[in-house]
Amino acid sequence: MTTAPSALPLTFSAEVAKARESGAAIVALESTIITHGMPYPQNLEVARQVEQDIRDAGAVPATIAVIRGALHIGLDDDQLSDLAQAKDVAKLSRADMAVCIASGGTGATTVAATMIAANLAGIEVFATGGIGGVHKGAEESFDISADLMELAQTPVTVIAAGAKAILDVPKTLEVLETQGVPVITVGQDSFPAFWSAGSELQSPLRLDDAGAIAKAHRTRAAMGLPGGQLVANPIPADEEIPAAELAPIIAQAQSEADAQGVHGKGVTPFLLQRIFELTEGRSLTANIALVRNNARLGAKIAANLVNLPR
Amino acid sequence: MTTAPSALPLTFSAEVAKARESGAAIVALESTIITHGMPYPQNLEVARQVEQDIRDAGAVPATIAVIRGALHIGLDDDQLSDLAQAKDVAKLSRADMAVCIASGGTGATTVAATMIAANLAGIEVFATGGIGGVHKGAEESFDISADLMELAQTPVTVIAAGAKAILDVPKTLEVLETQGVPVITVGQDSFPAFWSAGSELQSPLRLDDAGAIAKAHRTRAAMGLPGGQLVANPIPADEEIPAAELAPIIAQAQSEADAQGVHGKGVTPFLLQRIFELTEGRSLTANIALVRNNARLGAKIAANLVNLPR
Amino acid sequence: MTTAPSALPLTFSAEVAKARESGAAIVALESTIITHGMPYPQNLEVARQVEQDIRDAGAVPATIAVIRGALHIGLDDDQLSDLAQAKDVAKLSRADMAVCIASGGTGATTVAATMIAANLAGIEVFATGGIGGVHKGAEESFDISADLMELAQTPVTVIAAGAKAILDVPKTLEVLETQGVPVITVGQDSFPAFWSAGSELQSPLRLDDAGAIAKAHRTRAAMGLPGGQLVANPIPADEEIPAAELAPIIAQAQSEADAQGVHGKGVTPFLLQRIFELTEGRSLTANIALVRNNARLGAKIAANLVNLPR
Ligand SMILES: [Mn+2]
Ligand SMILES: [Mn+2]
Ligand SMILES: [Mn+2]
């Protein structure tokens, strides 16, 4: 599926513009990890590092954000640095991205919004940490991330280390199956659990090399199927927090949230902060490691796609 | 996004045909409010009044209905009058509209069906009372209005006073977020509650003028996003039934429904009738006021769209 | 809606290729009923019989499967025979079909995958036994078949004897309504219950002849609605197992599954096997009868479509 040229003006960084001209491999990156994932200056250091990982693996990074109403595909270092220090930046998804652009606002892109932007720019691969999913208690709250519906409809291959382990992962896999999203785990049979490499959940699909994933992406497009693929890339074994060790910590954080009456949009930040504290910072170290690992795999998949005819 | 010409023959009223030729602003209106919302002749009076409100605000009304197998975009006064007196008219949604047309039937259009028809006719704005949503108890019944999915996929901006307060509004907002639908409240931060201007629920987005809403609509289309926007327009303060006053009435109606074993498709009409009785008709007066208020805002948004390039 | 030529190479059987050239009526058939529905050689005999039923009714059968990476539209007798004896064949749905093709694998197509393939081949009608739906307990498990979402988005008319009665049929009908899928029962007002002709559930729509169903299909396409139609065709009265007789058997099978801790993907095969045993094979006889009945109706609808302009 060739992408129609975007009717919305896009602002390309010099590096991405050049890559587009030469037909080089490009990997999209989201920006909420910068604005909402870590404190300054660590967020800026990690953002630069992940971009460099992509370059080292032979592709060009395109960090995506909305800045004063312009949809940026690729940020230069000044823009990255400004975004890393900005306050009160909106967190954009499919529902609010157009309003932010139309209003001249600034916002960081979640998985859903980054997929939309990547697709507008003709970028087929996007590396992130973990996708959103079905929240625990969603059978009562109906709280389900728009990321899942985006995977069902926008033709971008998303590399993640699974869904964050604080979510209801079995229900997340069910929704992905219902919505027809390929869930492809790399190098193992079990679906990875973000900070932990493995889980007790079987992955629906397994492919072990970037070439096979690229070929599946192209086949899906040739079939006219509108959606993307979720590539579940386990955190490297020497950087994981084993599931057996993490499970009681997640459970403790969850019961603290319940006890303190934390609910709605407050739950995820609360849990992530408590897991950070209870693991003495290891959850953040693991998070950085898995994002970098995903960026490297994304670069390989993008490089393979360059060699496959559309 | 320019709309492809409809392959289905559409029947335009003289007034709408003329507006299309001259490029005038057009606002779609649904017809279930006529056939299922009020008794004759009040339904006809209100339908005429709402059409006139749109004309007074500088746009052309296009009431939509299926009459003997023809999809009408705009009704003349005889057709409006006939429809207002017709018996056993079907209530059409996405699932049954084509069968009705193919079978030569007559049907009134719900929010979903009106959006489909408006889009076929190239009309970008539609004013109604309240959208359908997630029904109370949907965690067990799975009873969720097709209106929500329509907002996710059909590029029409729908002006409503929120979702009817007898629905599970928090779950309705969750589904809209999951499906990527912009929910834009006008002039206040809280999401309106149909008969009441405010609620305890925060609106996901807020825009205070018709021009900004029109611009967001066009931006969304330029991004290739297929869906529409829900514009939540609070009932004017002097015509509302305050939430504190209405809440116990809704609760009473609900417990009467439970006690009498009313279920399924019978619940909504039962609740609306009991609320009408318990408010001594004020619920209907408020309903008319909010529809007219939405029609006026719709006309302003449509007028703004005329001046924005596609 | 005319279908764009598929960018994926399709492999047509000689019979289907000839039918395409001459513009003859074609009916798609799924292949999981062959690989996962019955033991060899009964599965082969039934597959041949159903194909012949379609020919006898004036159309051409196109059994669909992925064989060593090729998407086959129509199988010759050797291929049918090989598939009927193959071991460990994947069961393909929207999520995994492209991976199977890209990897050179072999797989049988479920309802969702068969709809996708039929649409790629320009085939508008597909006959099967029963569609997947909402599983019992889905309010907790979120286990909902991708078939329902496929009906919402792929323009193929699917003839089935309802949804398998081991599913939560009321919730299945709710999801179909939310997703805007026409559910059209033939010849009666109640929605059929697979092995039983009737049920206590009202069908949303009713059309009694193949011509009206074909016309509704074309009208839906002319309206630009992307999805298909579910045609619920009751099992012939003299071949049904009456609902009153079957209900306690299904309940017994279900409580045995619960007692033995069967869960997840194991439940459906367990229930079908126990129902087969408890009915002393009558469930299979009924299943074959209803598939043949659906094939004959599919042929009539396809023949009607040939005579309706696109
Ligand atoms: Mn949410
Ligand atoms: Mn409903
Ligand atoms: Mn399932």
From TrEMBL, chains A, B, C:
Annotated residues for binding of Mn(2+): D143
Cofactor binding note: Binds 1 Mn(2+) ion per subunit.
Record InterPro entries: Indigdn_synthA-like, PsuG
Record carries keyword Metal-binding: yes
The organism's place on the tree of life at top rank: Bacteria
Active site feature: E30 (proton donor), K164 (nucleophile)
Annotated catalysed reactions: D-ribose 5-phosphate + uracil = psi-UMP + H2O
The protein's required cofactors: Mn(2+)
Binding residue positions for substrate: K91, V111, S145, A146, D147
Keywords, comma-separated and alphabetical: Glycosidase, Hydrolase, Lyase, Manganese, Metal-binding
Enzyme Commission no: 4.2.1.70
Enzyme class: lyase
A single GO molecular function term of this UniProt record: pseudouridylate synthase activity
Quaternary structure (record): Homotrimer.
Family, per entry: Belongs to the pseudouridine-5'-phosphate glycosidase family.
Job description of the protein: Catalyzes the reversible cleavage of pseudouridine 5'-phosphate (PsiMP) to ribose 5-phosphate and uracil. Functions biologically in the cleavage direction, as part of a pseudouridine degradation pathway.
Protein name (Swiss-Prot/TrEMBL): Pseudouridine-5'-phosphate glycosidase
Species in which this protein is naturally found: Sulfitobacter dubius
